[in-house]
């Protein structure tokens, strides 16, 4: 690691070691954001995964079919680490730790293989039976090795990741109904459920294959490779077509009627100085009417956009511009500092998302909340006007990297956070005037 | 495991592991992935139609190729002078697999691509067929201004009724080609293609041009057939394969300087084959098996890929009699891409190795071997 640089591993390992639970920060957030003085206040509260202290990331936050919020307490930087799904308990205002996933799928952390360390944008609800599907991802090293490379260990039967484990979790009975291997040897980067057709869709890692899983037959179909850079999200349209992106920022579409993968002629919006390379989806949120989706890209200087998949042969795409601030373009930027995620529609019909904001050199690892802020934005789909509503203030560290956002049945928002030990989630209590019951419906069907 | 296990990062075992992991990708030489298009001007072949399974190269470095997938494409590529293009020549009707491409030089222009012809062998619902195209002039200025002629594919019919083509290669003069279907060996003139079935073989894997002008290929499990074009004599089970495991279809590399052939068994044991002297003993073993496409550069080193799903590149150095693992393919110059599965390999004009990527969104991968120290 260079003195002034920060790579993925350093970022994940350098998180703050805070164990303080239930740290109410609404006042500080509002003050920091300058939001007092008659404006609606959003209460921000941090929930560390302190009952799973080795957790170091939280990539998945989704609302379940029961309207409650589920998150993944991942342990990917820890040799032998295993993910524990958690759920927000509104009665206790705390987190319930559901199970040790490695134990449930007979792949414990001390197996000697790369571990079932995380769930990466791979919760997908099933409304008719109350099941929450979840699929695991790789990167956690075996218990006796410091790092894991899926490429290096691909042919090593003793060390190679066994495969993404797909679990059907019954949220009504709180039990795992069944599990299967979704993708042998590979992780699942993102998951989507087409409930009408009983199909799960997934992107594999590292090979970037497009996977279809038939829930009734419990059979996997591999449609092959898309690109090199894993897209971080899939979405589905009214025609049951499933969409994602390739390396160069083109849309990739699977059309069940044609049974083939197609690549769009146009490139997703990106900064003028970029080529579109790496403009893959980071997060995609459906509009409540399901006519369009809002997306952010996984690249420095992430762009926001609105995509209308039901219009024309290829969708109409509106650029909503960059999500983060201007900076010196001659200096390569850390993807862990310049970031936008957590796209979710609130009960007020507005799009919320979290974008990073920084104050110092682009090289510096944010070491305090002042240096790396997670700004919660509210975007009005009618006017496309956006306003800053609050900050995600971590009790003792930065909060600029949010993975996913979700809204629960009460209308409160939750955001997954990357960069602290233990990892955790933020709850953003919505102002009363902006809440509504069952705000999570219609539910998002992908992670 | 509620607490983080303690690992001694400084232990020799962990240090060795970390060093090995750091060498996972292209750890010697340089690989450059080139898309199946005129970059910046055209779009690559469709994702599921761009598995490159057949390559051929002319002495001046023009590359001919064919793809497999939902639809086979034939192409010509040029990477030298003012070129830098993969030119899609079209899609043979109904073809979903390209087994081989051969370059045919019709006459005095031998050694040049102009006036020459591409003959491809493709498979699909219409059987295993021969299809040809005139080779376009690749001497355009693709920086400044360019023009291209229309190209038309000509279908020369099935090679053997009802049988898919397994492989075919041209002779050294590029006047004729020898190919095999599942059950027969055939020949054809390259300038004016006309298929002539010579006899029956139990063909499997690729065929090769041996050091004295004969053609060989796997005959069933443990032997090679041999075809002598001068006498048109086809001999089944002509050569016994060395002790080894020979379940996987054979691939070959040919040293153009000596005519020496290289092949490998299913477990990655490398052997050389000389048409006069026969097979060598085992030369070494690749890190993974089976061995896929490979080619020989001008100094005799053999470069190829081994292993399924995520292949590793290897080098066999006949001077050192050593096999080294060069890691998983990665391109970081211009095109950033991992390379996992490869379908064919040829040696380019200057000794570079050109690999065809047999995957969705397949690229041509140009490998520039490390230059060895003169003092070594």
What does this structure look like?
The complex is a heterodimer of chains A (447) and B (376). Chain A has 447 residues and is mostly beta strands. In chain A, 4% of the residues lie in helices and 40% in strands. Chain A has three helices and 29 strands. In chain A, the strands form seven sheets. In chain A, strands 1-2-29-28-27 form a five-stranded antiparallel β-sheet, with helices on one face. In chain A, strands 3-4-5-6 form a four-stranded antiparallel β-sheet, with no helix packed on it. In chain A, strands 7-8-9-10 form a four-stranded antiparallel β-sheet, with no helix packed on it. In chain A, a hairpin with a 4-residue loop joins strand 11 and strand 12. Chain A is globular, with a radius of gyration of 20 Å. Chain A starts with 7 loop residues before the first helix and ends in an 18-residue tail after the last strand. The N terminus of chain A is likely disordered. Chain B contains one helix and 31 strands. In chain B, the strands form eight sheets. In chain B, strands 18, 19, 20, 21 and 22 form a five-stranded antiparallel β-sheet that branches. Chain B has 376 residues and is mainly beta. Chain B starts with 11 loop residues before the first helix and ends in an 8-residue tail after the last strand. In chain B, a hairpin with a 5-residue loop joins strand 27 and strand 28. Chain B is globular, with a radius of gyration of 21 Å. The chains are: A mainly beta (447), B mainly beta (376).
